[in-house]
Design goal:
With 735 residues, the protein is an alpha/beta fold. The protein has 20 helices and 22 strands. It folds into five domains: 88 residues; 101 residues, 2-Layer Sandwich (Beta-Lactamase), CATH 3.30.450.20; 155 residues, Histidine kinase-like ATPase, C-terminal domain (Heat Shock Protein 90, 2-Layer Sandwich); 123 residues, Response regulator (Rossmann fold); 117 residues, Response regulator (Rossmann fold), CATH 3.40.50.2300. It has a five-stranded antiparallel beta sheet with strand order 2-1-5-4-3. A five-stranded mixed beta sheet has the order 7-9-10-12-11, sandwiched between helices. A five-stranded parallel beta sheet has the order 14-13-15-16-17, with helices on both faces. Helix 7 packs parallel to helix 8.
């Protein structure tokens, strides 16, 4: 069957075909668009990757360029460092090789890996000594080949000792002395990597120089000993005739002389004393210059020590009518530990200078406590005067050797210029300081500051208290400072004090209030002390009067006549003043009437004190006997130590004065012999010697001597020594 296609059918078919084609086109177009979008995205992605890779490549190229420059710098630095290391090694090698001391390095196996010629020179006769040798083999060569002096050790023992030394944790230095003349100090150290560094210091010349120094020191010591012996002998030889000259001159002054004769005698006496001072200064300076200043601390009574020095110098002050005053801090301890002799020497120099350079006025010694330390108490001692003073220029060098206060051209005062230099050295040795304050034409104040241990166990054992019944004291004195010091101490003890400077004022004070005690100064300027005593006897006849005396012997007649109760030397000790005024019961012994506390048990009264004096020089015997003339004593003389021992057995003397240098038996041997006899253990023996060196005095004291007086003898010191050591109960100055 057939169908007839029509136009409409064809048109419909075409339309359908077009629609399919359009749909297919649309589909293909969409697919193409999607593919295009994907391609676009991929293109963008590739573009970003390319940009990133380009940046990375650029960075890599920059880094490569930088690394290339850095590599060049590192290469240059390495080359430079290598050059420096090479140069340092060269310098080190040259330095090690040029060392005058031996230098070697051993590895951890003790094999020699580095050595310089100086080290090898010690083994120049042994070719085996080279790089690669072991330390032990080197030591064995030294020991067994006789290269090193082994002293008393065997070679094997020495090798063992040297190997043990290297094995120690700390390798100690050792000295090796080679038989060919070298000496080395071997210093070995262990490095962190296990190597051993060995340094052989050449000490050959040092030992030679040391031997020369030792020899020179021995010669110097021998010369110093010879000089000291010479000075000691010369001092002894000079002092022996000086004792006769000075002693007889002092005695001559006390006789009846006209003015011209007295002037001659005083000139001889003062010139002799000046010569003795010069001798003492030269001896002290010589000893200190030789380094022989030694301190021997002991427990002393500080106030008593100061007072003793001032009493010793009091005659010189009395001759110039200069007032000596002691102001001892009432709160300061008495018992301290120091070198008594050196402290006395310092005070003697300072107080003696103050008196020498003071024509009118006073010399005041103060002792003040300025605080406590872990070791004791700080104490200031000052010596103040109203003398010529010291210029600012001289103050700068006053403590140096051979310095003088005055200009050489117009000097009025004699002296060596050594006293203050010696004083400064002593104070420095005692750990203290010394200073001076002065105004020219006004006066001076010398001070020393010392740290002195106090004796706590004995502190205050000598303290005495005033009788509480004494309520008021009248002080008659025209010296303001001395009067105020005494008044202050009495007021601190609860006593009311009134003062007067002359007889009229004294009588007015007595009329107002009757005092329990009167304290009278012997040296009143307005009226003699006897005139004041007469007025006191008229108005207060029963009131005890205590006199302060610059001349104690002159006051003894007043005391024996019972016109005064007691006489005290100026300057006075506080404890003596308390005993003289009246102490509490039991505080003072019966001898308070004399103004000195008792320290010895009383003995039965005899008419005279028995004194034995051993001395081989006839002139010295005469001087001694004349100095004690007028005292109530029985004096026996012995011409040597053997006679002294025999006289002691016969007489049993109360006090012995013993010369040291005597024939047959000297004073030391005689003292030891007497100490061994019955009754000889406790008899006071006082040495009178021309030996003034400290070492000699120490040897004298060591045999049992109680005290030492150096020649030329001083009458005041001699009588004081006799009074201090005589048994109580004797009135030496009585009629």
């Amino acid at each position: 069957m057939s169908f007839q296609r029509t136009f409409s059918d064809d048109l419909a078919r075409e339309r359908r075909a077009r629609l399919r084609a359009e749909r297919l086109y649309e589909q293909v177009r969409r697919e193409l668009l999607a593919a295009n979008e994907r391609l676009k995205a991929h293109a963008f992605s590739l573009s970003h990757q390319i940009i990133a890779q380009r940046e990375e490549l650029s960075a890599v190229r920059s880094l490569a360029e930088a690394l290339k420059g850095q590599n060049s710098k590192v290469s240059e630095d390495l080359h430079t460092a290598h050059s420096h290391v090479k140069l340092a090694n060269t310098r080190l090698r040259e330095a090690v090789e040029s060392l005058i001391d031996g230098f070697a390095v051993f590895d951890a196996n003790q094999v020699l890996i580095l050595v310089n010629p100086a080290y090898l020179r010690l083994f120049e006769d042994f070719p085996e000594m080279r790089l690669g040798i072991r330390y032990k083999r080197m030591i064995e060569i030294c020991a067994h080949e006789g290269l090193v002096k082994l002293d008393d050790q065997s070679p094997d023992d020495w090798v063992s000792m040297m190997m043990s030394r290297w094995a120690a944790e700390v390798i100690e230095p050792v000295e090796l002395h080679f038989n060919h003349g070298f000496s080395v100090r071997l210093i070995d150290r262990r490095a962190e990597n296990g190597d051993f560094v060995s340094l052989a210091n050449d000490i050959t010349k040092m030992l030679e120089y040391q031997a020369e120094l030792i020899d020179a020191q021995k010669r110097a010591e021998a010369a110093a000993e010879a000089k000291s012996a010479f000075l000691a002998n010369m001092s002894h030889e000079i002092r022996t005739p000086m004792n006769g000259m000075v002693g007889m001159a002092q005695l001559l002054v006390e006789t009846d002389l006209d003015d011209e004769q007295r002037n001659y005698a005083e000139t001889i006496s003062k010139s002799g004393e000046s010569l003795v001072t010069i001798i003492n200064d030269i001896l002290d300076f010589s000893n200190m210059d030789a380094g022989r200043l030694e301190l021997r601390p002991e427990v002393i009574d500080l106030e008593k020590t100061i007072h003793d020095v001032m009493i010793m110098l009091a005659p010189a002050a009395r001759d110039k009518r200069v007032e000596l005053i002691l102001d001892y801090d009432m709160f300061l301890v008495d018992r301290v530990k120091t070198d008594r002799g050196r402290l006395r020497q310092v005070l003697t120099n300072l107080v003696g200078n103050a008196i020498k350079f003071t024509d009118t006025g006073y010399v005041l010694v103060r002792a003040i406590g300025v605080g406590h330390t872990a070791h004791g108490q700080m104490i200031n001692l000052t010596v103040e005067d109203t003398g010529i003073g010291i210029s600012k220029t001289n103050q700068d060098h006053i403590f140096t050797e051979f310095s003088q206060v005055e200009e050489m051209a117009n000097r009025r005062f004699e002296g060596t210029g050594l006293g203050l230099a010696i004083t400064r050295q002593i104070v420095a040795a005692m750990g203290g300081q010394i200073w001076v304050e002065s105004e020219e034409g006004i006066g001076s104040c010398f001070g020393i500051s010392l740290e002195l241990p106090s004796d706590g166990e004995n502190a205050g054992q000598d303290m005495v208290k005033l009788d509480p019944s004494i309520k008021s004291v009248l002080i008659i004195s025209d010296h303001l400072i001395s009067r105020e010091i005494i008044a202050r101490r009495l007021q601190a003890a609860g006593v009311t004090t009134t003062t007067a400077t002359q007889i009229d004022a004294s009588m007015r004070q007595i009329a107002k209030s009757r005092p329990d005690r009167v304290l009278l100064d012997q040296d009143l300027s307005a009226a003699p002390a006897e005139t004041v005593l007469s007025g006191l006897a008229e108005h207060v006849p029963d009131t005890p009067v205590v006199m302060l005396c610059s001349d104690l012997l002159a006051a003894q007649a007043l005391r024996r006549a019972k016109r005064i109760h007691a006489a005290l030397p100026k300057p006075m000790l506080w404890r003596d003043l308390v005993c003289a005024l009246g102490a509490s019961a039991g505080d003072c012994a019966p001898c308070a009437e004399a103004g000195i506390p008792a320290h010895r048990p009383p003995e039965p009264q005899r008419e005279e004190l028995r004194v034995l004096y051993a001395e081989d020089n006839r002139t010295n015997q005469l001087v001694f006997s004349k100095m004690l003339k007028g005292l109530k004593l029985d004096l026996t003389l012995a011409e040597n130590g053997r006679q002294a021992v025999a006289r002691f057995k016969e007489l049993q003397p109360d006090v012995i004065f013993m010369d040291i240098s005597m024939p047959e038996m000297d004073g030391r041997e005689a003292t030891q012999a007497i100490r061994a006899l019955p009754g000889g253990a406790h008899v006071p023996i006082i040495a009178c010697t021309a030996h003034a060196l400290r070492d000699e005095i120490d040897r004298i004291m060591a045999v049992g001597i109680n005290a030492v007086l150096t020649k030329p003898l001083n009458k005041t010191e001699l009588i004081k020594a006799l009074q201090d050591h005589a048994p109580s109960g004797f009135d030496l100055t009585g009629p």
